[in-house]
Specification:
The protein has 89 residues and is an all-alpha fold. It has one domain. This is Ribbon-helix-helix protein, CopG family. InterPro entries: Arc_rbn_hlx_hlx (IPR013321), CopG (IPR002145). It comes from Sulfobacillus harzensis. It holds the Pfam family RHH_1. One of its GO terms (biological process) is regulation of DNA-templated transcription.
């Protein structure tokens, strides 16, 4: 483990100390647990996003005629990717 400093608001720290006392754990354990949950949820979002993008690309490929220029396909995919990212935000 590596030591780091974080700045918390007065109420955040007060509530963390209260929870830590209730659970008989150090505040640091609660913070590590919260960070783990945050990271896990972000990774799940990335996997979900990647699956959505893969499905979208497949749908585009299935609708595209083989006579269409590859640059046009890439442009469509790039625009679809931007749409998905904008939706995520």
């Amino acid at each position: 483990m590596q030591r780091t400093n974080i700045y918390l608001g007065k109420d955040q720290l007060r509530l963390l100390k209260h929870l830590a006392a209730e659970e008989n754990k150090p505040v640091a354990d609660l913070v590590r647990h919260a960070v783990d949950q945050f990271l896990r949820s972000r990774l799940e979002d990335d996997v979900t996003w990647q699956n959505d993008m893969t499905a979208l690309i497949e749908r585009v490929r299935n609708r595209v005629s083989p006579t269409i220029d590859p640059d046009e396909i890439e442009r469509d995919i790039r625009e679809a990717r931007q749409d998905v990212r904008a939706t995520r935000r």
